[in-house]
Amino acid sequence: MKRLLAITFLLAFVLSCSKTDGKGGYAVKIDGTKITKQEIQTEISALPEVAREFYKGPEGTERLINELVNREMLYMEAKKKGFEKTPEFKKKLEDFKKVTLIQQMLGKEMEGWSKVTDEDVKAYYDKNKADMIEPTKIRLSHIVVNNEQDAIKAAERLKKGEDFAKVAAEMSTDTKSAKSGGDLGSFNLGELDPNLENIAFRLKKGDISVPLKRKDGIHLLKVTERQGKLVPFDKAKDVIKQKLTAEKQKEGFDKYLEGIKKNYKVDINRDEISSINFAAQPEKKPEQKAAEPAKK
Predict the structure, then answer these.
(1) Alpha-carbon distance 151 to 214, whole Å?
(2) What is the pLDDT of residues 77-110, one digit of tens each?
(3) Residues 243-281, buried b or exposed e (16+ Cβ, 10 A)?
(4) Contact between residue 38 and residue 93 where contact means Cβ atoms under 8 Å apart
(5) pTM for this one?
(6) How far apart are CA 207 and CA 158, in angstroms?
(7) CB-based contacts of 147-150 (< 8 A; 24+ apart in sequence)
(8) For position 195, what pLDDT does the model report?
(9) 183-188 and 212-214: which strand pairing?
């Protein structure tokens, strides 16, 4: 992780380095290219705290200088060998430019989309207190089948609205619980297998889990009762704010995209699209043979 941060950080330096005549102050100079103390300071200030820690102290400073020099030399060598003129590089550069421009534009637009007030958060909390229950006890039912085909069949029946107890009675291989519609009884927090508990206690009342592979088969869980304590507002507010912010960003993005569609004419050639083979590998261009000398 630290190595990745270092590479990302130093790549930013490569893009900001400038060719100079060698005059003036600098922190690092490689041939005629110099990097000033201010440029380094600006880049370090923009890093998250965990990355800045990586470069603190004499050893960190030395690491920074060495990696910076290495990165700049490699950059110069790549340019010297003409890699910046290759079609592959130009394509990647263009793709990077597109993504960066989109990110900058949306980042600016999102400032207006994603404003969530304290009043918004409190209103959501008050309206959704039933979902703010931290469960300490649940009543659980399950359906157990032997293979994925049966799991899909059971899940499809439940999705269509069939009664869980009916499907359990007809399909579950756990014959004991199947007689009571898959009911397993009530469990306090800490009484279930940790892998099952982690999923079961996250389900709301009436929710059905995705199929879960276990040693004795594939399980579908349903919570029929849920008891617990209300999560205090101070503990829930940050999560609520993140949720509302994400929802506002999505809503704002959808509206923004819909709004700009009228400015562009889009023509999709369905015949051409339908002939695309998404599993195919890119065609390799045949190597050109050197021309043979003309025969006299």
Answers:
(1) 12
(2) 999 999 999 999 999 999 999 999 999 999 998 8
(3) ebbeebeeebeeebeeeeeeeeeeeeeeeeeeeeeeeee
(4) no
(5) 0.56
(6) 11
(7) 147/218, 148/211, 148/218, 150/218
(8) 85
(9) unpaired
Give phi and psi for 164, each to the nearest 5: -60, -45
- Could you tell me the two tokens for 81? 């060998």
Domain borders along the chain are 2-104, 118-125+235-258, 131-230
User: What mean pLDDT is predicted for residues 242-257?
Assistant: 93
For the record, the structure tokens of 155 come out as 């899940």
Which DSSP string corresponds to 170-193? HH-S-HHHHTTTTEEEEEETTSS-
Apex CA 246: angle with CA 241 and CA 252, to 5°?
120
Fold of the domain spanning 131-230:
Chitinase A; domain 3 (3.10.50)
- Work out the pLDDT band at 27, boundaries 50, 70, 90: confident
